Amino acid sequence: ILPNAIEKKFSKIKTNVFIFDNFNILILDNSGTKSALIHSNEIFLSTIMNQFNELWNGQENNILESSNKLNFFNNI
């Protein structure tokens, strides 16, 4: 459970790159049958940070929590 002070947003997944911590990145193919685990994020860090910032600041993101109530969206 995250504290209420943290701003939470969500978006449809547009990438097949998942970052688990500061070092491990999992990349999946479109079918979900092949993957690569990379133990360094230095190669992809600038690209991933740009994608994250675009998603976070994008107009299509919705705030998950407002006034301590969870909102459920049907158009996801």
How far from one another are the termini?
22 Å
Question: What share of the residues does DSSP label as strand, in percent?
Answer: 25-35%
The chain-level structural class is alpha+beta
Count of discrete alpha- or pi-helical segments spanning 4 or more residues: 1
Tally of individual domains: 1
Helical residues, percent = 10-25%
Secondary structure: number of strands: 7
Round the mean pLDDT to the nearest integer and report it: 68
Q: What kind of sheet is the major sheet?
A: 3 strands, antiparallel
| Rg from Cα | 15 Å
The helix-strand sequence is EEEEHEEE
Briefly characterize the structure:
With 76 residues, the chain is α+β, with helices and mostly antiparallel strands. It has one helix at residues 45-57, and strands at residues 9-10, 17-19, 25-28, 35-38, 62-63, 65-66, 69-70.
Notable traits:
76 residues, 3-stranded antiparallel β-sheet, single chain, alpha+beta, two-stranded antiparallel ribbon, 1 helix, globular
Describe this structure in words.
With 76 residues, this protein is α+β, with helices and mostly antiparallel strands. The chain has one domain (16-74). It contains 1 helix and 7 strands. The protein has one helix at residues 45-57; strands at residues 9-10, 17-19, 25-28, 35-38, 62-63, 65-66, 69-70. The chain has a 3-stranded antiparallel sheet, with no helix packed on it. It has a two-stranded antiparallel sheet with strand order 1-5. A two-stranded antiparallel ribbon has the order 6-7. The radius of gyration is 15 Å and the shape is globular. The two termini are 22 Å apart. Mean pLDDT is 68; it is low at 63-70.
